[in-house]
Design brief:
The complex is a heterodimer of chains A (about 625) and B (about 100). Chain A is α/β, with parallel strands linked by helices and about 625 residues long. Chain A contains eleven helices and 30 strands. Chain A folds into four domains: about 130 residues, no CATH class; about 90 residues, Sandwich (Immunoglobulin-like), CATH 2.60.40.10; about 300 residues, Rossmann fold (3-Layer(aba) Sandwich); about 35 residues, no CATH class. In chain A, strands 18, 19, 21, 22, 24, 25, 26, 27 and 28 form a nine-stranded mixed sheet that branches. In chain B, strands 2-3-1-4 form a four-stranded antiparallel sheet. The two termini of chain B are about 25 Å apart. The chains are: A alpha/beta (about 625), B alpha+beta (about 100).
């Protein structure tokens, strides 16, 4: 392998450009890809990337590869109308044989070029190319609007950065202004955020020295449009930067007039179950930010709740200022028999709303669970958590389990270990997956691909928390659901994966034969049996790390006993482990129905007493 | 980890920083006594979040960190005193 080129692949991660035409910029990155806009306004596009290019000498090249002459290579590149030479310099280069002989020098050119040209140069084995990255201070970066973070000694504080005003206009596909859209400008020094006014306009005052340090612009509409993301944006100071969002109706035609189904329902086999399987007779609680019950897809369906933010008597549980609870509720129970908008998984389940956001704490989870036990809730959707464990929350969840209330919990979005209470063995913990082709390629959803997608296009979501506590995975990227007051939005998160499983849990309790007979009584055994059915229904996914997918993606047909359970192949490693545990007397030689390798490991460890049985 | 409490008033004697705690016990009598004790203190507010006022099992208490530490020392085997952590919804909202 050519050691010079080990970092070059980073340049190859091209992102699609919003717009395609090329024009001349007034900012210090000189040229960019962007379409023309109206006078005083232009469409946001991607700027040129600045790279360092070095022709490699013959002594480090593989046999048969001819070295470039530095001068002629740089001249050739400099004559290219797409490429601009910024600088040249030389660097010392040690002899390739490691003898410590007289060092020579290598020629380096700093070139600005479109990403596709950088990608092409990466493929040239006789050239080393790498991004000329911006440097930033090693001290902790301020977060949010750049006003947080530790105070520094004013005696050593650097001169204040100049404020650069950058204006944006966010419009829909037909140029209609989109008010309330969130615009986030990202830089290594911190993010800057604002919302658009009624004309779809906003101006951000950026306290950074160099606009070319900006790594991305993210725009999130209130509803009914896809979000957009542009990495390495070519921002104009002189003109308004226009971001045009794609309507959701491009992907889901006539969403306000007819019923549409998100990709998650198909992924879990929910489109194949009988139409009368609608969760009637079960109770699901959404512990979240409230639910906008006036939404056309939720109207008439949700009549019970509690507001733990403003007080039990406030009645404001049907007001959702964040939209998060409404999105979750739509996935569980969307559809008011109106044949339009989104279809939830268990539309006839009785939904209860426990409002704890904004401002939710562990104490509000405990209060909400008290409500759930008192109201004999069957399934609780907990699309939230924290990093710190709590013995008292753990105790409250155990009490709920003993009362027959099953908690389905999101793993978390912080990319690291599973968050709390998702780490508890007494809950069913859900990680998030996505699927290629279910979102525009220029949306931020496209940034969430972790690892190598499988042959069906499923991938683990980059943000999902992971670890041995993950029980199952479910759709959690570009998930379409309801948002206040009458709109729809496609969001990402383990929050969005969890209601898929909570909705399925309601269907299982309502329609699986086990809960008509042996497990009718509300107790811990009923909850454990429910979780076991869901885990064992899963289709295993190989997305590079079992801790990101657990037993796999639940399958409605199998979970509802409409189809026979899947029998996965016991891998040779697993067979060896089972044999070794049997030989060591840790496991008796009983046959099991293998549903997934991870599930089998869990069963074996539980049978050996090495893992608690919930 | 604990969350910051409200900012103090302007000039004048500094007031202790108030933080949020969960206080639980399996011994109702102890918790009733603690709730009564804390409820009478000026820098402390108490809310019953599990059980009832007569038979509480978990309290949400806003109090100075020093008072929480004092409670832990006072009832080492009878009380659980832990941070009432703020929760985060796991929908990616205004990212990144």
């Amino acid at each position: 392998m050519n050691p010079w080129n080990r970092t070059a692949s980073a340049i190859g991660r091209e992102r699609p450009v919003i717009g395609a035409e090329e024009t001349v910029s007034d900012n210090d990155d000189t040229r960019e890809h962007q379409p023309q806009g109206n006078h005083g306004s232009r469409r946001l596009g991607r700027r040129l990337v600045q790279c360092m290019v070095v022709p490699l000498s013959g002594d480090v090249l593989p046999a048969g590869v001819r070295p470039h002459d530095a001068e002629s290579l740089f001249q050739q590149l400099g004559n290219d109308p797409e490429i601009e030479e910024r600088k040249r310099f030389t660097i010392p280069k040690a002899p390739a044989d490691g003898t410590g002989g007289v060092p020579t020098t290598a020629e380096v050119a700093v070139l600005a070029m479109p990403p596709h040209r950088a990608t092409a140069l990466v493929r040239d084995p006789a050239v080393h190319i790498e991004r000329d990255h911006h440097l930033h201070h090693a001290s902790p970066s301020p977060r949010g609007m750049g006003v947080e973070g530790p105070l520094v000694n004013p005696g050593v504080q650097p001169k204040a950065a100049p404020v650069t005003a950058v204006s944006f206009r966010v419009t829909g596909g037909n140029g209609v202004p989109l008010p309330g859209a969130t615009v986030v400008v990202m830089s290594p020094e911190g993010n800057f955020q604002s919302s658009t006014d009624p004309d779809g306009r906003t101006t951000l005052n950026l306290t950074i020295h160099d606009l070319t340090a900006i790594t991305g612009v993210y725009v999130k509409p209130v509803s009914d449009y896809w979000e957009a993301y542009q990495d390495l944006p070519a921002l104009s100071i002189a003109e308004e930067n226009t971001v045009r969002l794609r309507p959701l109706s491009d992907t889901f035609p006539m969403i306000h007039e007819r019923q549409v189904r998100g990709w998650g329902l198909a992924a879990m086999g929910l489109e194949q179950i009988p139409p009368n399987y609608r969760g009637r007779g079960t109770k699901v609680a959404i512990i979240d930010s409230g639910v906008a019950t006036g939404h056309p897809d939720l109207n008439r369906r949700i009549t019970s709740g509690i507001d733990l933010v403003h007080g039990e008597e406030s009645g404001q549980w049907s007001v959702d200022t964040l939209g998060h609870g409404t999105h979750c509720a739509g996935m569980v129970a969307g559809d008011a028999g109106n044949a339009l908008g989104i279809l939830g998984i268990a539309p006839e389940a009785e939904v209860h709303v426990c409002k704890i956001f904004p401002g939710g704490r562990y104490s509000t989870i405990i209060e909400a669970l008290k409500y759930c036990i008192a109201h004999q809730i069957d399934v609780v959707n907990l699309s939230m958590g924290s990093d710190e464990p709590s013995a008292l929350v753990s105790n409250a969840i155990e009490q709920a389990r003993e009362a027959g209330t099953a908690c389905v919990v999101a793993a978390g979005n912080s990319t690291g270990r599973v968050q709390y209470p998702g780490r508890l063995p007494t809950v069913l913990t859900v990680a998030a997956i996505g699927k290629l082709g279910q979102y525009p390629v220029d949306s931020y959803h496209a940034q969430q691909v972790w690892g190598q997608p499988d042959e069906q296009g499923y991938f683990s979501a980059a943000f999902t928390c992971h670890g041995p506590e993950v029980d199952v995975c479910a759709p959690g990227v570009a998930i379409l659901s309801s948002v206040p007051e009458r709109g729809y939005a496609a969001w990402d998160g383990t929050s969005m994966a969890t209601p898929h499983v909570a909705g399925l849990a309601a269907l299982v309790l309502a329609h699986h034969p086990d809960f008509r007979d042996g497990h009718r009584e509300r107790n811990a055994r009923r909850v454990d049996r429910l979780f076991e059915i869901i885990r064992s229904s899963c289709t295993p996914l190989d997305l590079g790390d079992p801790g990101r997918t657990g037993a796999g993606i639940p399958h409605a047909g199998r979970a509802l006993a409409l189809e026979a359970p899947v029998r996965a192949v016991l891998t040779p490693e697993l067979a060896q482990l089972r044999e070794a545990m049997q030989n060591a007397g840790l496991l008796t030689a009983t046959g099991t129905t293998v549903t997934s390798p991870l599930e089998e490991v869990r069963r074996m460890l539980q049978a050996a007493g090495l893992l608690p049985t919930t | 980890m604990v969350s910051p409490g409200p900012a103090g008033p302007g000039p004048g004697p500094a007031r202790p920083r108030i933080e949020h705690y969960l206080v639980g016990s399996s011994e109702t009598t102890v918790l009733v006594r603690v709730a009564g004790q804390l409820g009478a203190e000026p820098d402390v507010s108490v809310r019953v979040v599990a059980g009832t006022r007569r038979q509480p099992s978990v309290l949400a208490v806003a109090m100075p960190a020093e008072r929480a530490e004092q409670l832990r020392r006072e009832y080492p085997d009878q009380l659980v005193v832990e941070s009432d952590e703020p929760l985060e919804p796991y929908g990616v909202r205004d990212r990144p």
